[in-house]
Structures are given as structure tokens and as C-alpha cells.
Amino acid sequence: MTVISHQTHALSINPATGERIGHYPYESDAVLDAALARAAAGYAVWRRTPIEGRVGQLRALAVALRDNAETMALMITNEMGKPIAQARGEIEKCAQLCDWYAEAGPAMLAPEPPRFRWARPVSNTVRLARCWR
After folding, report:
1. 35, 77: one domain
2. What is the C-alpha separation between 80 and 67, in angstroms, rounded?
3. What's the alpha-carbon Rg for the chain, to the nearest Å?
4. What domain count does the chain have?
5. CA–CA gap between residue 1 and residue 120 (Å, rounded)
6. Could you give the CA distance from residue 111 to residue 133 in angstroms, rounded to a whole number?
7. Residue 128 domain-assigned?
8. How far is it, in rounded angstroms, from Cα 99 to Cα 55?
9. 44 and 55, same domain (yes or no)
10. In the prediction, which pLDDT does 1 show?
11. Which domain holds residue 29?
């Protein structure tokens, strides 16, 4: 029989009632290393994903947040003690942020022309780049 305590598990406690609503065993270093490797591999794929693909995924995430808002809001309320109306607002804020980045993100990632100029002294031995960002 496995003993469940704060030393072996992450415990989820409802702050309003003190009731334990969940427990999650701590992972080994090997499992954590594997998860970090998967995250690094996922990032390598994401950074090569065209902007249009990223926009589509952000829009899909916004839809998923809204479709699952009530379930997530109840989880926030139970685990954090946040009033349900505020929890729903948190989910909607996240969905709106996904929408905003889907709309504004492509322009933010567009290539920019360099903002510097070269000045050549008479001796031509020193060059100076001056950026004004």
C-alpha cells in the first residue's frame, strides 16, 4: 500500500473546505528528463512551423478554452478558492489573449529592416554601428 503524503505526492486541497481533492505522485529524475526532452523537441517543431500554422493553433486553443470553460473554471475554484465568476473570467481572458496573438502575432514576427548605419572615418580603420532602438 502506497502512503500518500506531502513528501511523496503533490496534494491538491480545496482552500474553502480543506478537503483533499487530488494527489499526484512526484516523478523520478528520469521521467522529468524525458518530459523536458519532449518539450525541447516540441519547441524545435514549433519554431519551424509557419506563421499560418501557429495562428491556426492559437485559434484552436481559444476555441478549446471556451468549449471547456466551465470545467476549467470549476477546477480553478476548487483548487484556488477563486470565486466562480472570476474563474470564468480568467478562462475568457486566456481565450482572448490567444485571439489577440493570432491576429497581431504575424505582424510582430515579420522581418524588420536593420536600423543602423555605418560611419566611416577618414582613416577607414574604425567602423561604428549606431542603433537607435
Report:
1. no
2. 21
3. 24
4. 2
5. 77
6. 15
7. no
8. 9
9. no
10. 73
11. 1-48
